[in-house]
């Protein structure tokens, strides 16, 4: 009898978890349907897909058990979760998943990375984690630390000090800002080098 009760508990928590993931897939479909996908490359599309998915996940975070909650530093777990949601989206909005795949097939292999040189002016946690660079001209530029790159540890472990000269590379993406209900051109940090 005890084993039967444990079995029922396991089945009910698995089904419950699946229901939450169905909700997240549906809300991610709704969010991505508002995107101007025609003007986005594969990277921008994947980035915005991820942001839509995480926005929905955050709405439903309390519906997950502690061992099911995402560890944002665990890339394998994040990737697996994204794949599960994308699979569920195939039945709800298959066109969006196909666009995600097509975006990568059609993307040029030429890098669109831009560079800035200046002094490191600290970091600031806002909607995203910002890295602030003051250029020689006096202009202050905020870049978002969003994806992993080899030198990210320099920021993560606070190895770069204020007023230290750095060179950063980045690309621009239009991210959906839910506060203003509009797309905002944002600089996404791809590398930082100490000078």
From TrEMBL:
| Protein name per Swiss-Prot or TrEMBL | Uncharacterized protein
Report the source organism.
Answer: Flavobacterium jejuense
């Amino acid at each position: 009898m005890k084993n039967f009760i444990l079995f029922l508990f396991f089945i009910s928590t698995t089904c419950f978890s699946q229901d939450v993931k169905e909700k997240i897939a549906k809300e991610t479909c709704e969010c991505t349907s508002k995107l101007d996908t025609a003007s986005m490359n594969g990277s921008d599309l994947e980035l915005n897909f991820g942001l839509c998915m995480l926005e929905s996940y955050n709405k439903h975070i309390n519906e997950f058990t502690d061992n099911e909650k995402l560890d944002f530093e665990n890339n394998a777990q994040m990737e697996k979760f994204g794949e599960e949601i994308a699979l569920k989206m195939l039945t709800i909005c298959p066109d969006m998943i196909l666009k995600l795949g097509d975006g990568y097939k059609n993307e040029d292999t030429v890098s669109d990375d831009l560079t800035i040189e200046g002094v490191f002016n600290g970091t600031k946690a806002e909607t995203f984690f910002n890295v602030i660079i003051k250029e020689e001209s006096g202009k202050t530029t905020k870049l978002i630390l969003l994806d992993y790159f080899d030198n990210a540890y320099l920021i993560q472990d606070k190895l770069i000090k204020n007023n230290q000269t750095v060179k950063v590379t980045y690309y621009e993406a239009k991210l959906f800002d839910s506060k203003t209900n509009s797309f905002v051109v944002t600089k996404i940090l791809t590398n930082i080098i100490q000078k």
